[in-house]
């Protein structure tokens, strides 16, 4: 039975995410992605007009899944906002510790690379990371309301600073092949939220 077009497109995007989270965007050819997805070479341009359009679609698909998972973690019932937020950071740490500290986060792996290559991919990254910061801000605000978090600054500034800090620490984890930058970041996160 032939694959449904949406499934084929998604298979291509999923294969690309797995490969590019290890190798980067520029180092990966379309043929490698299509081979990994089990899709004939000629069908790529049926789904994507260019490698740039493909890269944008891959980033958007990645962030759609990422934000849905983040929403699930940050909505876990029976926990304070602080506990939900720390669960999110714990998940982040575990993800970045995978594959000898090579992680799976495309924002970490591709952020600097594609921001200079493609305006559409940069905008997809910007939109996705803004979605993450929005969710952090909402959870921090909920923590102020339920009394589980205290701040010295605004929820938005704190959310932005936390995301920037975790993203930077994730890059350092990749450089050092050691998870300790995220352990330090966890400690500073607890301090910033007065936990």
Total number of strands:
0
**How many alpha or pi helices?**
10
Instruction: Profile the largest sheet.
Output: none
Q: Span from first to last CA?
A: 55 Å
Question: What percent of residues are in strands?
Answer: under 5%
Question: What would you say this structure looks like, in words?
Answer:
With 195 residues, the chain is mostly helical. The protein is 77% helix and 0% strand. The protein is built from ten helices and no strands. The chain has helices at 5-23, 30-37, 44-47, 51-74, 81-96, 98-101, 106-117, 119-146, 155-176, 180-192. Helix 1 crosses helix 2 (30-37) and helix 4 (51-74) packs parallel to helix 8 (119-146). The mean pLDDT is 87.
Q: Which descriptors apply to this entry?
A:
mainly alpha, single chain, 195 residues, 10 helices
Summarize the structure.
The protein is mostly helical. It contains ten helices and no strands. The protein is elongated, with a radius of gyration of 18 Å.
Q: Topology of this protein?
A:
Blueprint lengths: L4 H19 L6 H8 L6 H4 L3 H24 L6 H16 L1 H4 L4 H12 L1 H28 L8 H22 L3 H13 L3
């Amino acid at each position: 039975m032939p694959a449904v077009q949406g499934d084929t497109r998604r298979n291509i995007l999923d294969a690309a995410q797995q490969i590019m989270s290890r190798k980067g965007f520029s180092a990966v050819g379309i043929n490698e992605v299509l081979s990994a997805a089990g899709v004939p070479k000629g069908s790529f341009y049926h789904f994507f007009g260019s490698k740039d359009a493909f890269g944008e679609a891959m980033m958007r698909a990645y962030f759609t899944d990422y934000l849905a998972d983040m929403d699930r973690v940050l909505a876990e019932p029976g926990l304070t906002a602080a506990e939900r937020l720390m669960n999110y950071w714990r998940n982040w740490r575990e993800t970045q510790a995978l594959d000898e500290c090579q992680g799976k986060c495309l924002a970490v792996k591709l952020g600097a690379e594609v921001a200079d290559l493609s305006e559409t991919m940069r905008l997809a990254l910007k939109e996705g990371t803004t979605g993450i910061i929005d969710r952090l801000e909402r959870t921090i605000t909920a923590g102020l309301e339920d009394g589980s978090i205290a701040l010295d600054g605004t929820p938005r500034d704190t959310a932005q600073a936390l995301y920037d800090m975790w993203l930077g620490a994730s890059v350092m984890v990749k450089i050092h092949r050691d998870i300790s930058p995220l352990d330090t970041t966890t400690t500073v996160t607890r301090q910033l939220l007065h936990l």
